[in-house]
Write a structure and sequence with these properties.
Order of helices and strands: HEHEHEHEHEHEHEEHHHEEEH
Distance between the termini: 63 Å
Radius of gyration: 19 Å
Strand order of the largest sheet: 3-2-1-4-5-6
Strand content: 15-25%
Number of strands: 11
Helix content: 40-55%
Number of helices: 11
Length: about 350
């Protein structure tokens, strides 16, 4: 007798095998090490699980200040390609990072009710600065996927740390804004009453509040049944998606599961790019000349060196043009705050 659980597991195994066949067989796929810094946390644990399921990963390195041996032991029992090893404590950070192709950083404290992304700054900025100093030393050529909030400031912090170390490569530093895209797709498809799998919605700007600008005018396919008022409401809901989850969890957490999913999607895109899969395009917060700001999220083509091309904004609706003008000052301030913090000591 089939239970819902066995059906789901068969589907997962089938999906994993299909993905493997579509990209590389396990014999021919390049060896790829992925390190997750903050692997025992609310985002880190589900992200570790999802990366263990990715057939492109051969070595999974899990680091945190505590708890990682248990997480590694747990996921290591899963019958997929990668070998998972847990590392605890600063003295083992170098071992966790050595040879990494992709480093994902969800480390830091989560947002609590009433807390803005800005409130997180002093704690998470210090954590990110320390971790990036180690990355510059032990795996300077890795692609760095920054999840730790506030991303609008932590990415500039990372860039300054790498510049000081002489290892900065703007093609290899990414702010993970994929959750904004995931939310925009989900909310848009839900309102249009159409299958979400069919949709794509670019999201540009930054990764907090009004700096998040979903470009619903560029959604594919277009849902022509939505009013201007509904687009405004969808934009607001996408911008406030994190707050929606924080409030729903009533002080007991933030968006951890959906963030882990989004982080895994973006890391998978980076791995595909490294392995030479053509036309891999995702939105990300990167060094950019799309606007006058030094960092900006837009569509990015990924390749063997990380960023192959930062794509432009494309045509914007009047509402989106207004949103772009409104977000620039706030985003500028967040970027400058990160740069100032990195250069204080």
């Amino acid at each position: 007798m089939r239970t819902p659980t066995t059906t789901m597991l068969k589907s997962l195994r089938s999906s994993s095998t299909t993905t493997l066949r579509r990209t590389y067989s396990s014999e021919s796929a390049p060896e790829r090490k992925v390190a997750i810094l903050g692997a025992a946390g609310g985002i880190g644990q589900p992200l570790s699980l999802l990366m263990k399921l990715n057939p492109l990963v051969s070595s999974l390195s899990l680091y945190d200040i505590a708890g990682t041996p248990g997480v590694a032991a747990d996921v290591s029992h899963i019958n997929t390609r990668s070998e998972a090893v847990g590392y605890t404590g600063e003295e083992n950070l170098g071992k966790a990072l050595e040879g990494a192709d992709v480093v994902i950083i969800p480390a830091g404290v989560p947002r609590k009710p009433g807390m803005t992304r800005d409130d997180l700054f002093n704690i998470n900025a210090g954590i990110v600065k320390g971790l990036c100093t180690a990355i510059a030393k032990y795996c300077p050529h890795a692609l760095v996927n920054m999840i730790s909030n506030p991303v609008n400031s932590t990415v500039p912090i990372a860039s300054e740390v790498f510049k000081k170390a002489g290892t900065y490569d703007e093609k290899k530093l990414f702010g993970v804004t994929t959750l904004d895209v995931v939310r925009a797709k989900t909310f848009y498809a839900g309102k249009a009453k159409l299958p979400v799998a069919d949709f794509n919605v670019p999201v540009v700007g930054g990764h907090a509040g009004i700096t998040i600008l979903p470009l619903f005018s560029q959604a594919t396919p277009q849902a022509n049944n939505l009013s201007d008022e509904e687009i405004v409401a969808l934009t607001k809901r996408t911008q406030d998606g994190g707050t929606e989850v924080v409030e729903a969890k009533a002080g007991k957490g933030s968006a951890t599961l959906s963030m882990a999913y989004a982080g895994a999607i973006f890391a998978d895109a980076c791995l595909k790019g490294l392995n030479g899969v053509p036309d891999v395009v995702e939105c990300s917060f990167v060094q950019s000349t799309v606007t006058e700001l030094p960092f900006f999220a837009s569509k990015v083509r990924l390749g063997k060196n990380g960023v192959e091309e930062v794509l432009g904004l494309g045509p914007l609706s009047d509402f989106e043009k207004q949103g772009l003008e409104a977000l620039l000052p706030e985003l500028k301030s967040s970027i400058e705050k990160g740069i100032k913090f990195a250069n204080q000591s």
